[in-house]
Amino acid sequence: MNETILNVSPVPARTWLAVTALGISAFSIVTSELAPVGMLSTLAKDLNQTESGAGLVVTAYGWIAALAALLSGAMPARISRKALLVGLMLMLGLSCIVATRAHSMSGFMSARMAGALAHGAFWALIGTVAAQLVPAEKLGLATSVIFGGVSAASVLGVPLSSLITGMTGWRSAFTAISLLALATACVLFWTLPTLAAPKPLRLSVYCGIFKNPLLLSLYGATACIISAHFAAFTYLEPLLTKSQGVPAASISGLLLMSGLSGLVGNIIAGKLIDRHIKGLISISLLLSAGALGMLGMLGMGSAAPLPFWFTGMLLTIWGAGISIVFVGLQTWLLRSAGDAAQPASAIYVAIFNAAIGTGALAGGQMLAIIGFQGMALLAASVFLCSMTLVLMLKVPRII
User: Fold this and answer.
1) pTM higher than 0.70, yes or no?
2) Ramachandran region of residue 195, left (φ > 0), alpha (ψ -120 to 50) or beta?
């Protein structure tokens, strides 16, 4: 009797340490991007800005990150990808340190832009790294560890930044992010092997993507939904403290609830997205719009603030719903792009970051014109309009 023995060589511990370090890198980068959300009022006061003025930091960061992600694809193959990843984390860490020394909006903004360049280039590189580190049968686990840092940033990074800000100030929060980024850079330098540069993509591939009406519709829906979400989410802290009467000390707890609900949304999406992608995204948009709209409506002309538990429930529904939408749209895009999945995903990441910046800018403008509640209601209306666009799209086939 012949037996076939499959020899699968174990993955060295050093490799898993590199994978974990990449996950922590993702955590550091996303936390750095979203940290201002939980400290906007403090930041605005310290830098002599209005909340809408401080929100421009998120706008500029998102736009620069989007541009860096697009341009990073043209980096010459001779440049070491290992050196780039290590250098980008050093760049992020140093930018956070410089930000802590800023006493003006221009100085803080300049420091943040260096971090935004590192952010965009990092995401342009990270997609192909996991496949070079582990064998195919371990690829799913490695990818989940790396991109798990993104979810962890929403669940823990932003609330912790808000908590540190409340205890010792926003400069301490950025110092903590900086130390984490610098430590991670050292671990990456020690653990990462030599990484091959991806093959350059022909211009015709991108032309084909922009001629695909389904992909263009998905990009349009993504831009609208992300812009509306961050128009409200960027100013969540002043929205809760000034309009809903939530104590500043409770903000980090509410942000934690929102982040945890996002994880629940990811789990729900993982279970149902394959069979019910259109319905799941549509219902999630409807629930998110309803929760955000109620946050706006119930705060209008109300003498008494909303009960803490009710505010938390609305944030939980919004957080879970929008998380499902994020997963659903990217899944829809990857299934519809076929062989052009990698460049289509790169464009998606650039649009996502640009929409973050656009949403923060639009939210700041609406804040000055129609106030916190009006801004929340308008963002909820965009969710509903985007839902009608999603309902018109063709559902991708599962291959």
Assistant:
1) yes
2) beta
